[in-house]
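Key result, reporting period 2: structure in, sequence out.
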């Protein structure tokens, strides 16, 4: 029992250190189209001193449960959640993520559809659907932008908060209670 308690304490301390480091270095979560789209590569230099979490992995790397857990923690901890859709999108999960975020972190969610990007464009039916999605999100107080430049300008003018160590520890204790119940 004592060994298990020490092991759990050690894991929690490691997690606290990890979360403190993360909370100091992440202003925005960069969610959205993957599928080889280069929007993140274009946006990141425009962000200046705005820090970010980029969930992208190299093409040859497999997405794991650990990666998903890490992404979920960043979504919870980052003050802003950005979702950018480009014509390279293949799946629809990002749309579900942004709608979910619009209920959980309304004013912290940013949505952008790049209707034409990297020489590709969405069709007329898709454009109408995105307009309807934008309206739904705006009704939920989500920030909607239409270019990477608009996103960068918006994020650079936002106040940034650093989490206190006390808040990080509270979050860890909350998670620990959830795991032990």
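The corresponding designed sequence is given below.
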């Amino acid at each position: 029992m004592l060994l298990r308690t020490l092991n759990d304490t050690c894991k929690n301390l490691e997690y606290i250190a990890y979360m403190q480091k993360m909370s100091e270095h992440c202003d925005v979560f960069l969610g959205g189209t993957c599928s080889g789209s280069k929007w993140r590569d274009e946006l990141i230099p425009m962000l200046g001193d705005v820090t970010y979490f980029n969930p992208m992995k190299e093409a040859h790397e497999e997405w794991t449960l650990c990666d998903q857990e890490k992404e979920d923690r960043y979504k919870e901890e980052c003050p802003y959640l950005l979702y950018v859709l480009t014509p390279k999108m293949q799946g629809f999960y990002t749309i579900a993520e942004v709608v979910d975020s619009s209920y959980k972190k309304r004013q912290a969610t940013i949505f952008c559809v790049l209707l034409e990007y990297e020489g590709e464009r969405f069709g007329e039916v898709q454009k109408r659907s995105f307009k309807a999605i934008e309206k739904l999100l705006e009704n939920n107080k989500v920030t909607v932008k239409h270019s990477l430049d608009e996103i960068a300008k918006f994020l650079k003018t936002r106040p940034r908060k650093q989490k206190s160590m006390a808040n990080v520890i509270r979050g860890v204790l909350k998670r620990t209670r959830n795991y032990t119940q």
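The chain is about 55% helix and 15% strand. The chain has one domain: 27-56+63-175. This case is discussed further under Risks and Mitigation.
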